[in-house]
């Protein structure tokens, strides 16, 4: 899993976690957005909890909810819903 505590301390980064009302102590997914650009919000990191991946996932569409939230933040910050991000695949350990 990604080290969100380390990266969430960067200036201009905002960190959000997704939980449920039923189990507020269990993190379902995490998101870090960078708000420093005057034109868009940059989705720096997004991660779904391991128990929400694969065939036996607890909840579906966790990543979609996090991405939609990032877009909403862009609207709230007056950036018209623009959201930028890069795709980087996780390296498999041998």
Detailed description of the structure:
The chain is 20% helix and 24% strand. By secondary structure, the chain is of the alpha+beta class. The protein has a four-stranded mixed β-sheet, with helices on one face. The protein is globular and about 40 Å long.
The level of helicity is 10-25%
Q: How much is the radius of gyration in Å?
A: 14 Å
Q: Within the largest sheet, what's the order of strands?
A: 1-2-3-4
Arithmetic mean pLDDT: 86
Main attributes?
about 90 residues; alpha+beta; 2 helices
Topology (SSEs and partners):
Elements: H1 4-7, E1 13-18, E2 29-34, E3 41-48, H2 62-76, E4 83-85
Parallel strand pairs: 3-4
Antiparallel strand pairs: 1-2, 2-3
Summarize the structure.
By secondary structure, the chain is α+β, with helices and mostly antiparallel strands. The chain has helices at residues 4-7, 62-76, and strands at residues 13-18, 29-34, 41-48, 83-85.
């Amino acid at each position: 899993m990604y080290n969100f505590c380390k990266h969430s301390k960067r200036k201009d980064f905002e960190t959000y976690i997704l939980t449920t009302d039923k189990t507020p102590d269990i993190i379902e997914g995490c998101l870090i957005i960078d708000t420093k650009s005057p034109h868009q919000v940059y989705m720096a990191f997004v991660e779904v909890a391991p128990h929400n991946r694969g065939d036996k996932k607890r909840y579906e569409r966790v990543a979609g909810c996090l991405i939609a939230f990032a877009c909403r933040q862009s609207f709230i910050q007056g950036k018209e819903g623009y959201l930028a991000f890069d795709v980087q695949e996780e390296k498999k350990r041998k």
